[in-house]
Design goal:
Blueprint (H helix, E strand, L loop, with lengths): L5 E2 L3 H21 L10 H9 L7 H23 L4 H27 L5 H26 L1 E2 H4 L1
Parallel strand pairs: 1-2
Length: 150
């Protein structure tokens, strides 16, 4: 395997990943209040976001909010402190999670009904976004700073 290029931190990639994960955490935090925007009700929201009926309650959503914010922090920390193994492993874990969601999204394109909101959101938004974020997170994880390369 070729050596990774040494150089400046892939800050744009890290900010992209962290920003999307933080916005997603914000949406989930908003839904803990009982709000269902952009859907009309809990059931519609669940089917649009997950393709199945799952309660959008604080005990389910708050751990997800914490996970999303932790993932964002790991990716950003990797560009600030590249040497700690913890940040690299954390960023690789974020990469794996995003890649897994992208692969699952491809599977769901063939396994779910085509007329649903989830199908179209998965096709147009969720899967492509997860694929792009997985590549960006991998770039951050693989980065080697110039000082370390010498």
């Amino acid at each position: 395997m070729p050596n990774r290029p040494a150089g400046p931190a892939p800050t744009r990639a890290a900010v992209l990943v962290a920003s999307v994960l933080t916005v997603d955490a914000g949406l989930h935090l908003y839904w803990t209040t009982g709000a269902t925007w952009p859907a009309a009700d809990d059931r519609s929201l669940s089917y649009a976001v997950l393709g199945t009926d799952v309660p959008f309650t604080p005990p389910i959503l708050l751990p997800l909010v914490a996970l999303l914010l932790t993932a964002a922090a790991f990716v950003l920390a990797r560009t600030r402190r590249p040497r700690p193994l913890l940040f690299r492993v954390g960023t690789l874990t974020v990469t794996a999670g995003l890649a897994l969601r992208a692969v699952a999204g491809v599977y769901w394109l063939f396994a779910k009904e085509t007329g649903t909101a989830f199908y179209w959101l998965n096709l147009v938004l969720y899967t492509p976004l997860c694929a792009v974020l997985a590549v960006a997170a991998l770039r951050v994880a693989r980065w080697k700073d110039a000082a370390r390369a010498r």
